[in-house]
Every structure is written in structure tokens, then in C-alpha cells.
Design a protein that fits this description.
Length: about 325
């Protein structure tokens, strides 16, 4: 059976991996949308050679997006478009708000008109700097609306509200994935997030920059595990109308991650300490019982395995560039 899938943010880190995975299924066609504000064409260079992939450079916050995808039936919509790194969303706060509110409403409306299923990628940032640990989907979060991260945190939360309304009012089959830190070799080395920072710095022999004292924690999920979780969410009818954490429940101190990267990269870099950014969460770890129960999903790749892949790929890129 043939299937047409829309992916917004297709030239981004996660969108490009998702598109490649989906296109491995015979009969699947993907229409990829991206305004290339943070996505990169090189991420989808191989996909552009495939007849089953069509790329449209477009901003999904523009309401005209409802008319540019052609007349072909649309079966599934993965709405991933948004800056995800603090470095990028703080540089473009109004665009971040727009893509998660206007863009989400546009995609929901497209799903309502076409009968497509829609998956919205929200974020663990919806929990803010959590006062409940670990975080399950029932926790309502501790988000500061008056700070540099609010443009992303609150825009994602508003996107979730729109998903709830389209599900409850129009019965659109909507699923919301709250994604925790995802990484792999495909993450931009100028992304500004902790894994890309540490690996890039370690390979260059630069100081590894730890913010605060390094005791703050994160949970890191390798991209293949995250993509598998998203595809299962789209597939399972039990996920309709649900918010589900997609992340690795194993928690690491940032300082320990820095030491592990140094070890795996055989790097002589020093670790240096810098002021903790405003509203940076102190802890972050998902409860994934819902994902296990509804999707039969849990991560398979360990942090050490994922870091080994990431370091090897970054090293190869630095040699060829």
C-alpha cells in the first residue's frame, strides 16, 4: 500500500534521520518541508536523489503552506519544524514562537482537511526546571515565562494545546512526543548542545566547557532510538490523543559525560567551568512506562555506544574537510 508522508523540518538533524528511515519502506513517499533557517541541505543530499522524496523549501508558519503540497492524498504528518538548540532559538525567538504556534495550527488544519494522522514533536523543556523528578507525562512542569528559554518552552506547550483542541474538537488523530536530549553523528558541530560541544572540543584539543559545577543531569537518547519511537507513535492507534515521553531513562551528570567523551576520544583537553545559563534545568530524566506500555518502546543504544559512533563520525568529517 502506497503512503504519502509530510515531514516539516526535514533538513534538520532529527527530520533528516526520520525521512531516511521512513523511505526504507517500499511504497512510501515523503514530502519534506524546511525553510532552512537551522536545517542544512547537506543533511538531505542523498534523499534528493530519490524519486520518492520531494523537497519544498518553505516556512510552515505561512498559511499558504496548506496549498503547496499538491493534490496527492496525505496519510501522515510529522511536524518537527522548530529550532531546538538554545543557541538557535534564542537567536530567533519570534520565529521559534511562530513555527510552534502558527506552524502547528497550519499542520493540524492540513491534517483535519486531509484525514491524515499527525505527530507533533514537543520537548522535555515543557517540564522546565522540574520540581518533580523523574518526569512523567502527568507532571505539569515548572516553566519560567519571563526568561530567555521561554520562547521555546512556552511555544512548545502552546503547540501541545493546539493538538489537544484539534483532537478533542475535530477528532484529528494527534499524538504528541515529548522528546528528551537526542544526539548522534548527524548533530551539527556548531549546534551548541552538550554532546556536540564536548565531542567537537575534545577532538580539537580545546577546553571542554562545563556550565555550572557539572552536577546537573541529562538523559541522552541516540537518534535511531528516538526515530524508532516516533515511528511507533505514528503507527499505534493507542497513541492517539496521548503525550508520550521519548527519551532514555538513564541519567548522567554533565561532568561525567565530559570525562567519558575525553576518554573515548583519547583527548587531552582540560575541563573548564563557566556560569550556568539562566533557567538551565538542574535535572532531567524521563519516565517511559507509558512508551513501554502503549508502544512497546524503550532505548537500545547505550551512551558509550552512541558516543563512540558520534566521535568516529566527527573525526572522519574533520579529516575530510
Amino acid at each position: 500500500m502506497s503512503k504519502t508522508i509530510i515531514i516539516t523540518g526535514v533538513a534538520g538533524f532529527l527530520g533528516s534521520h526520520l525521512a531516511a528511515a521512513l523511505l526504507q519502506t517500499p511504497g512510501t513517499s515523503v514530502i519534506g518541508l524546511d525553510n532552512l533557517s537551522t536545517g542544512k541541505l547537506e543533511n538531505i543530499q542523498a534523499l534528493l536523489q530519490l524519486p520518492s522524496f520531494r523537497f519544498i523549501p518553505y516556512d510552515v508558519a505561512n498559511p499558504d503552506v496548506l496549498h503547496i503540497c499538491g493534490t496527492a492524498p496525505i496519510h501522515e504528518i510529522y511536524h518537527l519544524a522548530s529550532p531546538a538548540s538554545p543557541k538557535f532559538y534564542q537567536a530567533a525567538p519570534f520565529d521559534t514562537i511562530s513555527v510552534n504556534i502558527d506552524g502547528t495550527k497550519n499542520m493540524l488544519e492540513l491534517a483535519r482537511r486531509t484525514g491524515a494522522k499527525l505527530l507533533y514533536t514537543s520537548t522535555s523543556e515543557a517540564y522546565g526546571d522540574p520540581e518533580v523528578h523523574p518526569q512523567d507525562e502527568a507532571y505539569r512542569g515548572n516553566v519560567n515565562t519571563w526568561g530567555p528559554r521561554a520562547c521555546y518552552d512556552e511555544a512548545k506547550r502552546m503547540g501541545e494545546v493546539l493538538c489537544y483542541l484539534y483532537f478533542s474538537a475535530y477528532h484529528v488523530p494527534v499524538k504528541v512526543a515529548r522528546i528528551f536530549n537526542t544526539y548522534s553523528a548527524g548533530l551539527r558541530n556548531d549546534d551548541g548542545r552538550v554532546i556536540s560541544n564536548f565531542v567537537t572540543q575534545a577532538l580539537a584539543g580545546q577546553d571542554l566547557t562545563v556550565y555550572g559545577d557539572g552536577t546537573q543531569t541529562r538523559s541522552f537518547c541516540y537518534v535511531t532510538d528516538t526515530v524508532r519511537g516516533l515511528m511507533l507513535m505514528m503507527e499505534k492507534e493507542e497513541a492517539n490523543g496521548e503525550m508520550i515521553n521519548i527519551g532514555n531513562p538513564i541519567e548522567y551528570r554533565i561532568l561525567d559525560v565530559a570525562h567519558l567523551v575525553k576518554q573515548l576520544a583519547a583527548s587531552g583537553s582540560r575541563i573548564t567551568y563557566h556560569p550556568l545559563p539562566q533557567d538551565d534545568p538542574k535535572v532531567r530524566r524521563p519516565v517511559i512506562e507509558k512508551a513501554k506500555r502503549l508502544l512497546g518502546w524503550e532505548p537500545k543504544v547505550t551512551l558509550e555506544q552512541g558516543l563512540q559512533h558520534t566521535i568516529s563520525s566527527y573525526r572522519a568529517k574533520s579529516i575530510t574537510s
